[in-house]
Design goal:
heterodimer; A: about 325 residues; Jelly Rolls; Immunoglobulin-like; 2 domains; about 45% strand; B: about 650 residues; mainly beta; Maltoporin, Chain A; 22-stranded antiparallel β-barrel; five-stranded mixed β-sheet; about 5% helix
Chain lengths: ~325, ~650
């Protein structure tokens, strides 16, 4: 009887345990020292079941959102070295992701992971914020302040979007913590450290925000960067997996647009749609009718947007670009 | 009445004058011999080359002037020291030898216009001037006009205008001298000057070399004492002036001022180390032609400036090079139409080009042209002045700015003055073209200001009180706007500044002792009137680094060759950019000077104590200031009058 019960339990666990996919960013085949900051205009990076949006401005060579890096520079301070992790490598690997979360960054779960749970990821400080907190720079303070006793901290907060709603629950991780009575316990994270996200539950996307005790009129002084590696997503059961609708069903033109996008929906059934910004915030929800639908872009700031459509059969995501002219 | 010196009428024909002017304006050369030599020997007038009184001293506002005697008391100091100790101006000083900017009547650093012999000095890239690069050794006079002056001086003259003057010797002869000073924290200042004035020609040559280690100790709130590091600087400069007076009623002056400043940027108190350094180099050249007649005075000016900044921080692999050129010209004429009616009109042109990494290979250019006019009428007990200025910047008209001022007596000891004016500041080249964030659609900051006051004088005592009110719209700030992930320049807010200024001074003699004293107090509220998210500023919030209370006192006593001066200054708390408030502070300064004369030689010896009470204070957050310091100096000069 005991043997039978154990066998049934094991079989049940096997049936309920989902496959996991790890986004380790090694698929970019970067050599040590190399990095991708989105200058190719791709609008983002795909690894595992993740999409990491990137916004790159070619006029002034600046990026935000996410970058992919194999930089090994763990010694040079300053914003010129904003693509390096203080570890000088990925988590037991060469490549890792860097996020500039000012005011926030978002990553989107796709494929089998869309709408599923996220197990967790490894995080560490970038070289730029690490040395800024350790030694101070022309903009931001050395943590601990002049006396070394300031109760400073640098906090990464992770929330999820599900169904267009931002969760109230969050996971907090201190990238630096100087709040201890005993200053010898103060620390700045300098190794890859695992962050458990299982408490967040199922998600469409994750939102990352950063906060610090060093703030001013112009916002946070501490450089708003962190590094990520080996984010583990859980594949949804095949029965509940949301399948990707045929890409040919959705055609948007012009793209980029300055005034109006026209979305051509190829199916003969209307579909739910939502327009999100690069931070994952839902800006509009509406229905796409078969045929051509106008989506107003005139009042939107220039940048990258995500149009997501979904019905009972699955979902489809498309990047939209808005320009000022 | 204008106070023109008594001069004979010009004997040259109008055509001849125009041709000379044309040569001057078109050639912009120092080809002085090309101009016709006079056929008779003439005497130099005592008048100095300066701007016309209708611009320099606007009716209805207070002007403070310091002549060469006043400036000499500040030998080895900077213009900032004079302005904050005797002008009551707030100087945002980042520390010994570091950047220093002004705030007058609650205005920003870009709201102080600075002129050198009538030509504007503000950087077209930044719209402001680093006052730590203005040694008093290179000027013979300073005047300070508080309040809006855009009708006279154009862009930037919102909080006030500082004028710097150079003059030839006031007598025919020569003067040569050298001064050396040594002080705390490795301070050294060495100056040399030679001045000559003959029948038609006058020359001034001045040079200085100054350096300091600035390795002063400072105290943290915790009581811990630290030593400042990486704060040493060196400055060197030479100024050559040539004055040529072919006739008593006309004068041509040429100026060339070269200066270099090499300074290390000290780390913040919250920074372990700093490796940044900045090299500022400039060459400023100018020509000034002045012609006087019984009907008035004509001025023509040409200026060409080249200024460069080389900022390096090897620790973060950063090097930022920038430089700009400006070419400017101005003509103005002031007519004395009758004993009680004066008229002035002029044209101004300025072309600026700049190079910087932030312009991404572009070399932005800004062309400005302006016409200005002023009329002053005097009745028995009333003097009224009306001025207008219209400026065009590239393809855009700046709204016309008027100024109306009046003053008159109330009793034999008491008088009143009032002024209303519209003032503006055009966006800088960085505001317009820097990438990322430059915004070519920016509007000028513009607004109205009004002031009124009373002046009382009886015997050796005088007292003035002035109230002011100013609103500036379209105040330019760098901030984050909706959907942007980079900071950009925008016309974000409106600022309301108002306040009250008081000055009391006296001068008297007791036996062989001569006493002189001055007390000043300013109350300034300068508040943001529109709430902003990024940068985060609340409605009604006092602007950062704008103290509400400023006070100063100065007492000077002298007997024969001995002079002692004590100055005291108080500054109230200020809000910083880091969510913190810096407490207010008191500072004391003392100077003792003794002078010996033998035949044509004069020797001055002096000792000074800055921050006499060893106050621990900061003007800018995370930037420590030096405690008590001492300086000793000797000044030896030779004078010979023909």
């Amino acid at each position: 009887m005991k043997w039978t019960s154990t066998t049934i339990l094991l079989l049940l666990c096997t049936a309920l345990s989902y496959a996991q996919t790890t986004a380790d960013f090694e698929n970019f085949d970067l050599e040590p020292g190399e990095a991708l900051n989105g200058s190719d205009g791709s609008g983002g990076f795909q690894s595992g079941n993740l999409f990491l949006p990137n916004s790159y401005n070619p006029d002034f060579n600046a990026w935000s959102g996410w970058a992919i890096s194999a930089s090994t520079d763990a010694t040079t301070p300053g914003f010129m070295n904003d693509l390096s992790a203080i570890t000088g490598s990925g988590y037991n690997s060469t490549t890792y992701a860097v996020s500039y979360a000012s005011p926030q960054s978002v990553l989107v779960l796709q494929g089998a992971a869309a709408g599923g749970a996220v197990e967790g990821f490894y995080v560490t400080n970038g070289t730029y914020p690490y040395l800024s907190m350790l030694e101070g720079d022309g903009f931001a303070k050395k943590f601990g302040g002049e006396s070394g006793d300031d109760p400073d901290f640098f906090l990464l907060t992770i929330k999820k979007y599900l169904g267009g709603e931002l969760s109230t629950d969050s996971v907090n991780f201190y990238l630096a913590d100087y709040r201890f009575e005993d200053n010898s316990q103060d620390y700045i994270v300098e190794d890859w450290t695992y962050v458990d996200l299982s408490t967040l539950g199922n998600a469409d996307s994750l939102q990352f925000t950063m906060s610090s005790t060093d703030n001013g009129m112009f916002g946070m002084n501490t450089p708003a960067y962190f590094c990520m590696d080996d984010l583990m997503t859980t594949d949804m059961p095949v029965s509940t997996q949301r399948t990707e609708l045929p890409a040919a069903d959705l055609n948007v033109f012009p793209n980029p647009a300055s005034g109006t996008w026209y979305a051509q929906w190829g199916s003969n059934q209307e579909v739910e749609a939502r327009l999100m910004n690069i931070s994952g915030q839902v800006l509009q929800t509406f229905r796409l009718m078969p045929g051509t639908n106008a989506i107003e872009a005139l009042t939107l700031p220039a940048g990258i947007y995500v149009l997501q459509v979904h019905n009972a059969n699955g979902y489809l995501t498309k990047k939209l670009f808005k320009t000022n002219f | 009445m204008p106070h023109y010196p008594l001069l004979p009428c010009p004997s040259g024909s109008k055509t001849g004058r125009m041709r000379q002017l044309l040569i001057l304006l078109l050639s912009f050369s120092y080809a002085l011999p090309l101009l016709a030599q006079p056929d008779t020997a003439v005497l130099l007038p005592t008048a100095e080359i300066t701007t016309s009184p209708l611009r320099a001293n606007f009716t209805g506002s207070q002007e403070q002037r310091w002549d060469s005697t006043d400036v000499n008391r500040y030998a080895g100091y900077y213009l900032t020291d004079l302005l904050e100790r005797e002008g009551g101006i707030f100087i945002k000083n980042y520390g010994g030898g570091s950047i220093a900017t002004t705030s007058i009547r609650g205005g920003s650093a870009g709201h102080t216009a600075v002129t050198w012999n009538g030509l504007p000095l503000q950087s077209p890239m930044l719209g402001q001037l680093d006052f730590s690069l203005l040694p008093l050794a290179f000027v013979d006079g300073v005047n300070l006009q508080r309040g809006g002056g855009s009708a006279a001086w154009g862009s930037g003259a919102i909080g006030g205008t500082v004028g710097l003057r150079n003059t030839p010797l006031s007598y025919r002869g020569m003067e040569a001298g050298a001064q050396t000073m040594l002080g705390s924290f490795g301070f050294q200042d060495h100056q040399a000057r030679a001045r000559y004035r003959g029948e038609q020609w006058a020359f001034n040559t001045r040079m200085f070399h100054r350096s300091a280690d600035n390795d002063f100790n400072y105290q943290l709130d915790s009581g811990e004492e630290r030593q400042q590091t990486h704060a040493d600087f060196r400055q060197q400069a030479i100024l050559q002036e040539v004055y040529w007076q072919p006739r008593p009623d006309r004068q041509l002056a040429a100026f060339a001022w070269w200066q270099t400043s090499d300074r290390n940027i000290p780390p913040l108190t919250t920074q372990t180390r700093g490796e940044a350094l900045q090299l500022d180099t400039f060459l400023r050249t100018a020509l000034h032609y002045q012609q006087r007649s019984k009907h008035g005075v004509f001025n023509a000016r040409l200026g060409w400036f080249r200024e460069a900044i080389d900022y390096r921080d090897d620790a973060i692999l950063l090097r930022a090079l920038s430089h700009f050129h400006t070419l400017m010209g101005e003509v103005e004429h002031q007519w004395a139409l009758s004993a009680d009616l004066e008229l002035q009109a002029g044209l101004f042109y300025n072309r600026a080009t700049a190079t910087a990494d932030g312009y991404r290979g572009e070399q932005p250019e800004q062309q400005r042209a302006a016409a200005f006019a002023s009329i002053r009428k005097e009745w028995d007990a009333l003097r009224v002045q009306l001025s207008l200025r219209q400026e065009r910047v590239d393809d855009n008209w700046v709204p016309i700015v008027p100024a109306l001022g009046a003053n008159g007596p109330i009793t034999s000891n008491l008088s009143w003055q009032a002024k209303i004016s519209r003032n503006y500041r055009i966006p800088t080249l960085n505001d317009l073209h820097w990438l990322p964030g430059g915004n070519p659609d920016l509007l000028p900051e513009i607004g109205w200001s009004a002031e009124g006051g009373l002046s009382w004088q009886k015997g050796a005592w005088s007292y003035t009180v002035t109230g002011f009110h100013r609103r500036i719209d379209d105040w330019i700030m760098w901030g984050l706007t909706e959907g942007q992930n980079f900071w950009s320049a925008n016309n974000l807010t409106e600022v309301w500044s108002r306040g009250l200024e008081q000055r009391l001074s006296c001068r008297f003699t007791t036996g062989a002792w001569q006493w002189e004293g001055q007390v000043g107090y300013d109350y300034i509220r300068s508040t943001n009137e529109i709430a902003i998210q990024q940068p985060r500023i609340a409605e009604g919030e006092q602007l950062a680094y704008t103290p509400e209370h400023l006070g100063f006192a100065r007492i000077s006593v002298s007997k024969d060759a001995l002079q002692f001066t004590y100055q005291h200054r108080l500054t109230s708390a200020v809000q910083t950019l880091n969510d913190t408030e810096l407490p207010g502070y008191h500072l004391g300064f003392a100077q003792l000077q003794y002078q010996l004369s033998w035949q044509r030689f004069t020797l001055q010896a002096f000792g000074r104590a800055d921050n006499l009470w060893d106050a621990s204070y900061r003007i800018v957050d995370r930037r420590p200031m030096p405690g008590r310091s001492f300086q000793l100096g000797i000044n030896l000069f030779f004078k010979h009058k023909h």
